[in-house]
Amino acid sequence: MKLENDFNDIFVRHFEENITSSEINDKISLLNLKEKQYIKDNLSVLHYGYEDRKTVINSQIKQILRSFDTECNYFFSNLTFKNYQSYHNKLVKSFETLNRIYKVDNVEITTEYLQLKLEKLNLIYEKEKKIEEEREIQKEIKEQMKEEERVRRELENERKKLEKEERQFNNEVNSLFKRLEKSNNDIEKELYAEKIKQLENKISESQEDKKDVINRETNTRAGYVYVISNIGSFGENIFKIGMTRRLEPYDRIKELGDASVPFSFDVHAMIFSDDAPKLENVLHKHFRDREINKVNHRKEFFKVSIDEIESVVKTNHNNTVEFIKIPQAEQYWESQNLSNNETLIDSL
């Protein structure tokens, strides 16, 4: 058991974030070459007590190496995220057991060769983690591209709708001006003038709205940072802090709660910012030590209080943002009440 402890942390290596699975695979290939060189240079197995190595212990060396390599290859082939530590310990145990069995033959696997195997186990583990991470990143890139295309279409449709409204209002104004010029009735003229004024106000509003939409089209960093919770799914004081560029940000919140969770999300704050990614990044960095998923930072769930989030937002954004402190969680509380009633009835 001492060896298990001695080798427990030597090769638990975490590579820099920008390394790829392909680069780790290259490291494994180099390690395989190193293993072969160890065997060729007689560094993989120690032997003692015999002068004629070729005729006396060659078969024992081959047997102990074959046995150890077979067991190691099984661990390498079946390694998963869950069994890494278990396989690490089993590999060391295999090393100890085989050396004990072959002690009578005066051969033993070297600790240096064991170290190579442990390093390979760790490299394979890190490669699998990277492959999963790269798969997640590609999935999120595709989702982000879909979201950006959805936002682009939404903004384009809104701009076209506003332009159409503006044309209609202008046509109505022109028509009313013609009627006003032809009219000889003062009351009629007054009604036309009032309608023209109302339409001109609508045109001004429409132009302002169109200006905002065009700004959102050109400024791709403008959007909403949202703070939401779902106590029925994740418990209390667990918040998702994300962002969306949608014109209707609550549509995005509805999507998040549609099928993946049993209850809908409660919105605690919806914060518009000309640089939403920056504000989102400030919040994520501030609460990095409280994130739920320590491996995948893109999951955006944090165990914090709403007061802490509010403080960071108001310090880094502005003091006018309104926060809803207590979630409604209507369906969750109703479900709890129904469950309690069922329990009470069953106990009668």
TrEMBL record:
Q: Which residues are in the Bacteriophage T5 Orf172 DNA-binding domain?
A: 233-316
Q: What is this protein called?
A: Bacteriophage T5 Orf172 DNA-binding domain-containing protein
| Coiled-coil intervals, chain numbering | 124-216
Give the signal sequence positions.
none
- What UniProt keywords apply to this chain's record, in alphabetical order? Coiled coil
Where does the source fall among the domains of life?
Bacteria
